[in-house]
Amino acid sequence: MAKHFEEKKKIKKNKKEKKVNNKKRVLIGIIIFILLILIAISCLYIYKYYSDTKNSEKTSEILSDIKVNEEEITDETTERMLQVQKLQEENPDVVGWLEIPDTNISYPVLQGDDNEYYMTHDYKKEYTIDGSLFLDKDYDFKKPSSNLLIYGHNNRGHDTMFVHLLDYKDEEFYKKHPIIRFTTEKEDAEYEIISAFESRVYYKSEKNVFRYYYFVDAENKEEYDDYVKNAKKASLYDTGKTAEYGDQLITLSTCAFHTEDGRFAVVARKIEK
Fold first, then answer.
1. Tens-place pLDDT, residues 2-27
2. Structural domains in the chain (count)
3. Residue 80: enclosing H or E segment and its boundaries?
4. Residue 39 domain flag
5. Strand locations in 130-259 (E)
């Protein structure tokens, strides 16, 4: 009788252990399944990350693929201007090409109906994490407006768009790269840098601060001069250059990480030929 009871107890114990082991196997299976999903998502993200980076790097090289009629090139119409015209046939939102010579900043500039779309799309209107360089929606070429306010991402690690704009924190870098080239379908122009400064997005409640990111068109000389004065005052170093009312300005703006909602900007004036 005692032997039968022990055997029954042993069978019951084995069933219990088997049940526990089955639960463990199911739990382990679920964990492995979740881990495989996470790995797959990570792989897709990494692939997308490097794919977008590769596409952004290619964007800076598209001019070499655009062939133009050399007979159309004149002193007034440069090859770059003709190339911009070709890009506009593909996407009318292309307003020009921005280049800082001897740097990797060389990209088409887009202008949309808002300041959001080209933060995540390239000149072909395809999604990309790097976005595009884009002109503020309020700039009016017909006037034209006072300041070409151009934005670009600072995607650290991608080495694209406006990542290297922050190199202008170094005065020696500025001295070697004092010129910005901006080409539209009508003009191939150079701009000399007058200021490079750190900033941030200010709260509405803050008074007497320099909100450079709102300045596109000056209503009068006082407003224009105030912008130039504040840009010069904020500059990390003295460039020895300035601008006078009526000079066309260009401001390049990107995110910076020296403070919360930080920004970095470079301001330049057009060199009249």
1. 555 566 556 665 666 666 667 777 77
2. 1
3. helix 79-90
4. no
5. 133-135, 147-151, 179-183, 188-200, 249-256
Domain of residue 81 covers 60-270
Least confident of 19-28, 43-52, 105-114, 126-135: 43-52
Residue 146's contacts (CB-CB under 8 Å, 6 or more residues apart) are 215, 216, 217, 218, 224, 248, 249
**CA distances in angstroms from 71 to 74, 79, 125, listed in the order given:** 8, 10, 31
Residue 243, domain CATH: 2.40.260.10
Instruction: Determine, yes or no, domain membership for 104.
Output: yes
228 secondary structure, DSSP code: H
* pLDDT in the model for residue 67: 86
Asked if 183 and 78 count as a contact pair (C-beta separation under 8 A), the reply is yes
pLDDT tens by residue, 20-68: 667 777 777 788 777 767 665 554 444 444 444 444 446 667 887 888 8
The two beta strands, 133-135 and 262-270, are: unpaired
Work out the mean pLDDT of the chain and round it to a whole number: 88
Dist. CA 122–CA 37, nearest whole Å: 30
Helix (H, G, I), strand (E, B) or coil at 241: coil
C-alpha to C-alpha distances, 102 to 33, 35, 71, 181, nearest whole angstrom: 50, 46, 28, 11
Query: Tokens standing for 166?
Result: 């922050």
The SS3 call for residue 164 is helix
